[in-house]
Amino acid sequence: MSVLVHSPATLSNLGCGFDVLGLALAAPYDAIRVRRSAAPGVRIRHLDPYNLPTDPARNVAGVALLALLAALPEQEGVGFEVEITKGIMPGSGVGSSAASAVGAVVGANAVLDNRFSKMQLVDFAMAGEAVASGARHADNIAPAMFGGFTVVRALEPAIDIVALAAPPLWVAVVHPQIEVKTSEARKVLPATVPLGLAVRQWANVAGLVAGFLTADYELIGRSLDDYIVEPARAALIPGLAEARRRARVAGALGGGISGSGPSIFMLNRDEATARTVGAALGSVFAELGIAFNIYVGPVATEGARVVSEC
Ligand code: HSE
Prior knowledge:
The chain has two domains: 2-165 and 300-309, 2-Layer Sandwich (Ribosomal Protein S5, domain 2); 170-298, 2-Layer Sandwich (Alpha-Beta Plaits). 37% of the residues lie in helices and 26% in strands. It contains ten helices and eleven strands. The strands form two sheets. Strands 1, 2, 3, 4, 5, 6 and 11 form a seven-stranded mixed beta sheet that branches. A four-stranded antiparallel beta sheet has the order 8-9-7-10. The N and C termini lie close together (6 Å). L-homoserine binds next to helix 5. Residues 12-13, 18-19, 133, 137, 139-140, 182, 185-186, 259-260 line the site of L-homoserine.
């Protein structure tokens, strides 16, 4: 039996919520076929142009599946054949590695009669994400798994994720074609934070969560700002300040760096505004002579899911 899973792109951090907040996008997504095999181990094929490693120990989906296999009784003799078609460009900052890791374990769980809980699958997927970013964090994994708006309240002593419905929102993302490695973008972060800045930051996190729960768009807009991480990373993304300025003029509620970059996201009330904002974001990079892609789409209510079985 094999299943085909679609696993969505995600925004992590959402401005003020470094390593904690996340949001699932309806598109783009990775398509991952998982087939149960009697031959132990994991075999991966990539049906996309990105030249990613297919050695399971070096592939985010492979590492996640090896973690899942390690949780099965050895005598069961289970393995997986995996075909990955990435719709999400690697290194774009919209949760490409998390989508592959989550999609793979959701598919594997489906061919194993769903014996693992979603929280266990998050744990397996995080092993894959750690390979990509050099750190264990679940702020892309959580929305890719649960959909909507997610809060990673804790990873230790147990994974504690709060999955919430997001109000109707349209997201505009610009992906400038520059390389920002998550592992490098984490090295520029401050080791300590002055208390005054921390107070402003957690006030915004509280405001943002309240804004999502009450569908208060104005509150969402004024709570997104990040006083700690974005200032340290801004130098890695040319055009960031101008992109934010033009997006606000075009009607965006607010936004910031998507994950560790280089993408920039903006949240919007409706599709028409999101499209105008997308064009405004693109205009900045066109003027800078940097190639870019624009994604415009609604927030996804669902996370990774099986779309067909055969
Ligand atoms: N929270 C992570 C970061 C997301 O900003 O480094 C990137 O994977």
